Amino acid sequence: MNAATQPRPRRDDAYNFAYLDEQTKRMIRRGLLKAVAIPGYQVPFGGREMPLPYGWGTGGMQLTAAILGADDVLKVIDQSADDTTNAVSIRRFFARTAGVATTEQTAQASIIQTRHRIPETPLTADQIMVFQVPNPDPLRFIEPLESETRTLHALKDYGVMHVKLYEDIATFGHIATAYAYPVTVAGRYVMDPSPIPKFDNPKLHMSPALMLFGAGREKRLYAVPPYTQVSSLDFEDHPFAPQRWEQHCAICGSEDTFLDELIVDDQGTQSFVCSDTDYCAQRVAQGRDGQ
Amino acid sequence: MAAPLLHTLLQPAFPDPVLDAQRSFRAALKALAEPGVVQGLRPAHAPSPLAGLAEASHALCLALLDIDTPLWLAPAFDTQAIRANLAFHCGCPIVSARQNARFALLDSSQLHDLSGFDLGNDRYPDQSCTLLVQLPSLEGGRRLAWRGPGIQREHLVAVPLAEHFWQERESRNDFPRGLDVFFLAGHHLIGLPRSTQVAFHGGA
User: Fold this and answer.
1) Which residue pairs from B197-200 have beta carbons closer than 8 angstroms and sit at least 24 positions apart in sequence?
2) What is the spatial distance between Cα A210 and Cα A215, in angstroms, rounded to a whole number?
3) Do B26 and A69 touch (CB under 8 A)?
4) What's B23's domain CATH number?
5) Touching check for A148 and chain B: CB below 8 Å?
6) Whether B103 contacts B72, CB under 8 Å
7) Domain limits at B46?
8) Annotation marks residue A31 as catalytic
9) How many domains does chain B divide into?
10) Band of the pLDDT at A266, cuts 50, 70, 90?
């Protein structure tokens, strides 16, 4: 676990560099430039079939393939873990088709493809985050027609988003939305930040790193440029609040990270550990522990 | 006699078509994500200048244009050499009407009039034209404060541009509709997305 950066492996030259053909990369690249110029707006793109099923990160992979260069160092996480099936197979895919160096250490990576988390280690201006997105449109839950949601976005008609949050308050007494919590980007577009926990929403705000979002099945990409205002929707009397835990990580003792709950025996005994495996291992290497 | 003509007309493109296109794109992506910050292309990874087209302009054309991107050429760039090389290396259609262009290649003589370029629409603002503006230099103009996404507080940028350009840009910038611009000189580029607010009024 937490291996140091793997040196550049030999590229399988039966494939074009990073798998996609050059015309597809150009199409995605032009889309990414527009996405950066219009923060939070969903750019349609001609999503290609990838050698894995929808739901496994085809959108994120196409974006990574379009931006990846020979000198990049790639990190891939799934629920913030480097060693899960999805993360391992995507990392191996690009190691093979692009011959790039890979790493599990956030600070070493120049591109981080992620499903469901933003790393705990603060990002830098030289890093790009690529998010795998299942449902890019935050309005889709109320309006299934793309033509209608597009009009709502065009008119900046986002009242229905607050209705959804209000219904949470009316039913549960608080905003119960815990992930894919909608945000307003640069005061204009309401955006689904992908299924990251709302714990990670504050990390989007004024981040020094460029954030790119790709939805393969829905064929949409969007972006949050560095140093961009990103605010989570809320009410004056029910302000946005990220999750908090009374427990600390059983491995590294961290009290301010996103924790996963584990049930460790038949009696239902709980244990909590950091979801970010790299961050947790770095703290253990520094001599912290949870006892 | 066709062979000798072609021999002099067609120039080599990127030394490495795949990786140099990627490097040029990443420079363009960083330029738009950090408006006002000069990005550079390493000479070893840039194409040679082409009949009046600087290295950075040439590189962005090669990296971004293809059969899907109609291109509008300002008269200064509407030469046989540029037409032949872009047709050969990119295959992009070259259009005479500005409103049909997805990309446009301009020099400083064109910046007093940006009429006709597609600004996108409220439903599809991404369909707007991208302007590639080649300048003699990216410095030496009036220092203006740029603010907006990609800029932590403000960037002071001195791209040498006449007041007319900023008025033209402002009159056509109705966010989310608007024009995205790359300023190009030599091996360097600066990005100016539509989201950037530039305080150009007043002062000398």
Assistant:
1) B197/B146, B197/B147, B197/B148, B198/B144, B198/B145, B198/B146, B198/B147, B198/B166, B198/B169, B199/B144, B199/B145, B199/B147, B200/B144, B200/B163, B200/B166, B200/B167, B200/B170
2) 17
3) yes
4) 3.40.50.11310
5) no
6) yes
7) 14-108+116-199
8) no
9) 1
10) very high
Q: Residues A12-40: what's their mean pLDDT?
A: 97
pTM of the model: 0.96
CA separation, residue B59 to residues A32, A51, B48, B91, B106 (Å): 17, 31, 9, 15, 15
Question: Do A26 and B21 count as a contact with CB atoms less than 8 A apart?
Answer: yes
Take residue A161 and report the two structure tokens written for it: 């988003």
Q: What is the pLDDT of residues B39-69, one digit of tens each?
A: 999 999 999 889 899 999 999 999 999 999 9
Cα–chain-centroid distance for residue B108? 12
SS (H, E, C) A77-128: EECCECCCHHHHHHHHHHHHHHCCEECCCHHHCCEEEEECCCCCCCCCCCCE
Interface mutation vs chain B, best among A26, A94, A191, A204, most B CBs within 10 Å: A26
- Kindly list the structural domains of chain A, giving each domain's residue range(s) and its CATH number in brackets, ordered by start: 22-138+180-232 (3.40.50.11310), 244-291 (2.30.170)
Q: What is the pLDDT of residues B72-112, one digit of tens each?
A: 999 999 999 999 999 999 999 999 999 999 999 999 999 99
What share of residues in chain B are helix, strand, coil (percent, to 5)?
Answer: 35, 20, 45
* ipTM for this prediction: 0.96
